Amino acid sequence: MTVAETRGLLFPGQGSQFVGMGRELAARSSPARETYREADDLLGFSLSKLSWEGPEEELLRTKNAQPAILAHSVAVVRALGHGIGPVSCAGGHSLGEFSAHVAAGTLAFSDALAAVRLRGELMFRAGEVRPGTMAAVLGLADDEIQRLCAVASDGNGVCVPANYNSAGQVVVSGDVPAVEHFSRFAHEAGAKRVIPLNVSGAFHSPLMKPAEDGLRAFLEGVPFKDPSYPVISNVTAEPVGRGDEARSLLVRQLTSPVCWAESVRTMTRLGARDFLELGPGKVLCGLNRRNAKGAGFRCRAIGEPTELEDFLGTSAG
């Protein structure tokens, strides 16, 4: 089995965006440039200008950040072309699961772009109807976090684990009073840090139920194909091989925790050893230092043209 045949693709989620993302790539790659032209035409505004020039506060908005990250990831995939080589499986963190399905051929880019733009709007509206918040927790075991969430939820609303990012790094989500109580309990239980997150709602929690309903209605009218290679679901941490299953799980994802650490372990079980993080930032490669560690694993982030050219040069060699 060659290195390319053990390749696993990783696609970043919201929080990886930054002003300037994709600008140099589009300047030096015609497939990437065309991807941004397509996105601008489909959305009816210049997503490219917003991604490349800001303003930052507009790019940070959920309804803008999600399509911007998707477009950057797809631009990288298209810029790589056949140079990406055979792929064993793919996974995406939250929003990134849509990018993974575009790469695998499950979803057309145009449909995914419309879906994540709506997804961002629906998530923001759900946060307005029932305000919530999130906090990252470092240094506590998963079962202890689950226990503290249950205690914090008693009479204070909802607090649930939202992202299992790696061992010792979990994000919780829910009603503001419940998350505040959780934060106090986590400090008392010995957490290294509890970091409040600047978000517009309690993502991946029951508070996103209105957004889930809206996304389900939209995706019912979107064609889904069977992916050309397994895409790991955030919800189940298991490979998805059918389009109808992908549609259902992308909806459930909004109110379910992101089982990211387990998803990467599934990818390694499927043979992935050479990971590529495609899109803005290097967050997932950073997490892979815990999720897929060892001499047999490596992870490279590709989002800038120099990173792409270095990878293609290495692959050619």
General description of the model:
- With 317 residues, the chain is α/β, with parallel strands linked by helices.
- The chain has two domains: 4-127 and 207-316, Malonyl-Coenzyme A Acyl Carrier Protein, domain 2, CATH 3.40.366.10; 132-200, Malonyl-CoA ACP transacylase, ACP-binding (Alpha-Beta Plaits).
- It is 49% helix and 16% strand.
- It contains 14 helices and ten strands.
- It has helices at residues 23-28, 30-43, 47-53, 56-59, 62-80, 96-103, 109-129, 142-152, 176-188, 209-219, 243-252, 260-269, 283-291, 305-316; strands at residues 7-11, 89-92, 132-138, 159-166, 169-175, 193-197, 231-232, 239-240, 274-278, 298-302.
- A six-stranded mixed β-sheet has the order 8-7-2-1-9-10, with helices on both faces.
- The chain is globular, with a radius of gyration of 19 Å.
